[in-house]
Amino acid sequence: MVTQADRNPVIACSRPRFRTEPVVCAVSATAVAAVSSTATGATVPLCAVGRLEVMVFRIRRVYDNILARDRAAVEQVQVMLAERFPGLDPKEVKSLPDKLRRPVEHGFRAILYVAENQRRTVKAFALVFHEPDIGFVWLDYLASAAGGGGRGLGGTLYERIRADARELGVWAVLFECLPDEEALCTDPGHRRQNAARLRFYEGFGARPVVGTAYETPVTPGDDEPPYLVVDGLGSGRPPTRHAARAAVRAILDRKYRHLCPPEYVERVVASFTDEPVRLRPYRYATPPAEVASAEPRPEPPPADRRIALVVNDRHLIHHVRERGYVESPVRIDAIRRQLEPTLLFDEIPPRRFPDRHLLAVHDRGYVGYLERVCERVGEGRAVYPYVFPIRNSARPPRELEVRAGYYCIDTFTPLDGNAFRAARRAVDCALTAAHAVLDGRRLAYALVRPPGHHAERRAFGGFCYFNNTAIAANELARHARVAILDLDYHHGNGQQDIFWERGDVLTLSIHGHPNFAYPYFSGFADEVGAGAGRGANRNYPLEERVDGQRYREVLERALRRIEKHHADILVVALGLDTSRKDPTGSWDLGATDLAANGRLVGSLRLPTLVVQEGGYRIRSLGVNARSFFSGLWQAAVGLGDRQPARSSSAKLPPTS
Prior knowledge:
Structural class: alpha/beta
Number of helices: 16
CATH class of the largest domain: Alpha Beta
Shape: elongated
CATH topology of the largest domain: Arginase, Chain A
Mean pLDDT: 86
Helix content: 25-40%
Strand order of the largest sheet: 1-2-3-4-5-6-8-7
Largest sheet: 8 strands, mixed
CATH superfamily of the largest domain: Histone deacetylase domain
Radius of gyration: 28 Å
Number of domains: 2
Distance between the termini: 41 Å
Low-confidence stretches: 1-42, 45-54, 641-656
């Protein structure tokens, strides 16, 4: 039975499943003209019909339902599925989160896109399935919410699907459309709606396959059997018979296996005899003109897939000019210069956060001391710790300058007039990046200095004053289960100290053995946490000489531990001092190794916040950062598939 709601002109649907009850949906013919030039970006401004009003929508991909915002979006989509498609099996609606998180069990890799307004209300969505081995994308649903408010979003969402499909390297987007021919659809009203939908997709070059038995109903006599529609993504070439047969078999065997008996599947697959497969001539749109081949200009990925970049805009005020002090402002510039040409980053300004976030991690007396002593020192001077309270730590010295050793773990981390302000701004940057993750960004990067992973609850050292990584992780832990992975050459003693008795945050560190590497007193393998945190701290101290292969072996062990923790969010303390010839390290990792490390970390496919820590060889610092993030992005959000879907075929040649 087909309801009037199913034929709402704002809704576009590629899944009019005829084999039980046909669902007829049409898209407005004007929707093609409404496609925004920002279809692959973050926000889409659309003028509301008949009103002097602009509605701003954000198009983004939803990877799973772990975080609150994503969970709310998935729940809204489930409501829309149930309301817009009343004949849909409730089990299929309920299975949506599982399809997103566990693609292998469902035969395809599900990809969900939503269009949200400024109130985070989902106004339209698209659900597609990627088959990486055969090389196609199946468009399952493309629909708007009941009651309007999303007119024109069908075209915008479809443009996003096509852009991502091209990046995936598939040969086509496939879907079903109900027929516009009288012989297959006897209802004139339905034919008009079907024609509107086919006209919409034909505007993108998508046309039905002809000369096959795909339109054959499973039950003889069923009305409106669907076409199989092929969008070749502008290639101008129809699919090969071999590729089409493999795709049709995958669709019928996996997606409709509960409806299609084996003999039906074989009959339909065998009917694809033309080489190449024939597509219906253009009926509603003008065939697209041939595009002259030219070197394409690189385009940035959609904004929701770019890495949110937050840079400490006040780091320059902290510049220790003493000879040999390697933690210098040029580090930020060296990294930034190499990241900008990648087009993978979307810079956002730091926000100011209240002190309660800082005091949730650091001792109040310690924070107050740093602020007072830095104000007292003033410009052009620096205080270096030189007296340490080994015997009587309960009675700190009265003089602020002398008291530095009461809160410090070394003699080479100075307190100058701007150390507090620069470090406090780095905290804001880390929290801003953390909230970008909570707001739906899959990757975020706090490019900050001074670093922070050596700062303990009530101690500074190793160029670190406040533990940016721990503060961000603590904030994220209020919303989800968190793991910290410290990839600096030196042990992340700060996170270990802060979360020592907490089991909700897993702390891992891969570093040079404390027998020869700073901070010397911590980072041993038998340090595992205490109390509720026992077992939630893991150290991987390595030998003095380490190459890329050895490092990856240990990194893979750490990643398995993160999976065992069932982390929802990953925080990476990124030190680039693991690289070859770094003045503070002894390992031999090159840019290729760092790219491989990034891919391994990204293969977890978790929302990930990266916080900059060490890395002091300026000549290679930027290249190494670019390599790590390129690998991370490629694996985490670059549309690659960590777990390939089951397939009945090897990778196929796309077209003739």
